[in-house]
Specification:
The protein has nine helices and no strands. The protein has 186 residues and is an all-alpha fold. Helix 1 crosses helix 4. The C terminus is likely disordered.
Length: 186
């Protein structure tokens, strides 16, 4: 076996082989996250058709080895795309992005104001003209009763979902399950 002699005068400025492998693994992990999305969410992620088809094929496969190979193929396709818009879309689905977090806090504050004072219903009516105020009023009343009775906050959570749907214009599958970990304010 021939030994390669290192010439100290030649410097390599590119990434190391290990770094290239880490980058490739990160892209493959991002591809795995894409592959685990549902059809509706996948349709909203900004990716090219080749990658979208590869992800759909992965979802269709059942054999472990076929899925593993397809995941490697997805990773290879991911090398040719900008991963940042994909990461941003996935973060928004998970509620990780700063914009999404701020939106959730704003909705939580609106819900808290509504529970405390029915006058907040006027603000909701102005901000969202198509809002079903009767439904919101009933949910508010039920949330107050649940809190007083020490029952699980079912109406409290439903009120949050309704407010979220109003803000997103009825498209609410991106935020599915966000409220489950939110504690009821005492």
């Amino acid at each position: 076996m021939a030994k390669h002699k290192h010439n100290p005068d030649e410097e390599y400025d590119g990434p190391s082989k290990s770094q290239l492998k880490r980058d490739s693994a990160a892209l493959q992990d991002l591809g795995r996250e894409l592959a685990e999305l549902g059809k509706e969410r996948l349709a909203r992620v900004p990716i090219d058709e080749d990658l979208r088809d590869a992800v759909k094929d992965y979802q269709r496969f059942t054999a472990h080895e076929a899925r593993r190979r397809q995941l490697q193929y997805i990773g290879r396709l991911m090398r040719n795309v900008d991963p940042e818009p994909i990461r941003a879309a996935l973060d928004a689905f998970k509620g990780v992005s700063a914009v999404e977090t701020a939106r959730m806090h704003r909705l939580e504050n609106l819900r808290a104001r509504l529970i405390e004072d029915e006058k907040a219903l006027h603000d909701i009516a102005e901000a969202y003209p198509g809002a079903d105020l009767q439904q919101i009023r009933v949910l508010r009343r039920n949330a107050i009763k649940e809190k007083e009775a020490g029952k699980p906050p079912r109406a409290f959570r439903e009120l949050f979902r309704v407010l979220r749907e109003l803000e997103t214009g009825g498209v609410d599958d991106e935020a599915e399950g966000f409220d489950d970990g939110i504690e009821e304010e005492a």
